[in-house]
Amino acid sequence: MADEIMTKLNACVRAVKEQVDFTPQVALILGSGLGDYADQIEVAAELPYDRIPGFPVSTVPGHSGKFIFGTLGGVKLVCMKGRVHYYEGYSMSDVVLPVRLMKMLGAQTLFLTNAAGGLNPDFKPGSLMMLRDHISFFVPNPLLGKNPEELGTRFPDMSEVYSKRLCEIIQREAKAENVPLFEGVYAQLTGPSYESPAEIRALKGLGVDAVGMSTVVEAIAARHAGMEICGISCISNLAAGLSAGELNHKEVQEAADEAAPRFTRLLNASIKAFGQEIL
Ligand code: HPA
């Protein structure tokens, strides 16, 4: 299993390097609503996922997939436009393959973004929440199986998945940019169905502020591989039972689109600050 993971990963890394000559510092995964973020960067190269043999290709409308390589404020970025979700039927090792690949291309820092349902009563559709911690109980751990020792240790520590120093920079930049930024705990569920109101009440009792169908397993694999991580959720809707009416994917995309300009400003400022202060 570990050997299979490494064989596939090494083949993907080789395929990317044959097509793109670029060493990224920061990996950025673009969630719903941030699909146009790549307009912000000086693009050096693009690589559609289907040009990487073995790479998992997303099937969700609005999640068309490619890597975009380029610079922003002097920082060398690899952006994922479109991610792979567990609910699409991929194995967890495929779901986290892109993160491992970006690490192997050189990225030491991972910036995760997503759209999420809000549980915290302070949140409204369009609110932004920086991840301070996560709950992974409801999805299989992406590190199950024989450990690929080349990537990381068998029992990786998860006491600071979301880097305090990155969080401090992001929060400071949010204030400077006048972008309201909440903080909280994100829980990943498999989806694709949204939660029931009883499930949301149960999650509230566990201390969850936002819920979604991605991100946590990517963060676990990245931490395993020694990356420094930060993440921001766009609260695209109040979670089930917390507002009148049904949840639908269109509403989620519309709220994410509305928040996109603020989200974009915060990302730009944060990544530039990482470049000046950390990288
Ligand atoms: N639940 C799960 N995932 C989501 C939601 C939600 O309410 N909104 C956006 N992604």
**Average pLDDT number:** 94
Numbering strands along the chain, what is their spatial order in the largest sheet? 5-8-7-6-9
Indicate the CATH architecture: 3-Layer(aba) Sandwich
Q: Outline the biggest β-sheet.
A: 5 strands, mixed, barrel
Count of individual beta strands: 9
Uncertain residue ranges: none
Number of helices: 7
The share of residues in extended strands comes to 15-25%
> Span from first to last CA?
34 Å
State the domain count.
1
- Please give the share of residues in helix: 25-40%
What is the CATH class designation? Alpha Beta
Based on secondary structure, the structural category is alpha/beta
Radius of gyration: 18 Å
Bound molecules: hypoxanthine
Q: What is the general shape? A: globular
Helix and strand sequence: HEEEEHHEEHEHEHEH
Explain what the structure shows.
Helices cover about 35% and strands about 25% of the residues. The model has no long low-confidence stretch (mean pLDDT about 95). The protein is globular, with a radius of gyration of 18 Å. Helix 4 crosses helix 7. The chain has a five-stranded mixed beta barrel with strand order 5-8-7-6-9. It is α/β, with parallel strands linked by helices. It has a single domain (about 1-275), classed as Nucleoside phosphorylase domain (Rossmann fold, 3-Layer(aba) Sandwich). The protein contains seven helices and nine strands; from the N terminus they run H-E-E-E-E-H-H-E-E-H-E-H-E-H-E-H. The longest helix has 29 residues, at about 250-275. It has helices at about 1-20, 90-95, 95-105, 165-175, 195-205, 215-225, 250-275, and strands spanning about 25-30, 40-50, 65-70, 75-80, 110-120, 130-135, 180-190, 210, 230-240. A hairpin with a 2-residue loop joins strand 3 and strand 4 (about 75-80). It binds hypoxanthine (HPA).
